[in-house]
TrEMBL record:
This is DUF1351 domain-containing protein. It comes from the Bacteria. It comes from Pseudoalteromonas fuliginea.
Length: 146
């Protein structure tokens, strides 16, 4: 703003005569000079504005890349645990299916006896300590339903 006021005062201090050809040429030259000054001032600001507008896209790309990297790292770290727990989950699912299967009409007493024997034979010491509570609940549900 202050630079504009100074420049404007310089331009307005010169009052060319509109009556002469030389004065009209000078007015046109001043107009061209003002356009040049505008470009000198405006171009860097526009370039800076374009750079600022690019920033959110760049930041978003970095954030997306970080999210993908961390998600992959988490998956890689958890993969061995998930693979090892798959067997435990399969056993738990078998125990959880006993009450569902027992509710199906037409289940024979021999089948019920087999379910009960399977549920009773399940060794809670073979499961991970952190999963014992789930297994105990599933085993009790299987035994009370069968």
């Amino acid at each position: 703003e202050n630079n504009f006021d100074t420049y404007s005062a310089e331009i307005n201090a010169e009052v060319p005569q509109i009556d002469s050809e030389e004065g009209r040429k000078r007015i046109k030259a001043l107009g061209a000079e003002i356009n040049k000054k505008l470009s000198e001032v405006d171009s860097p600001m526009r370039d800076y504005l374009r750079d600022i507008k690019k920033q959110p896209k760049l930041i978003e790309a970095i954030a997306k890349e970080n999210k993908e990297k961390f998600t992959k790292l988490r998956a890689d770290i958890l993969k061995p645990l998930e693979e090892a727990q798959a067997e435990q989950n399969a056993w738990l699912e078998e125990l959880n299916q006993i009450p569902v299967t027992c509710a199906i009409p037409g289940v024979t007493s021999d089948e019920l006896k087999g379910f009960i024997e399977y549920a009773e034979s399940f060794d809670l010491n073979s499961v991970w300590p952190e999963l014992k509570k789930k297994f105990k609940v599933a085993q009790e549900n299987a035994l009370t339903t069968a």
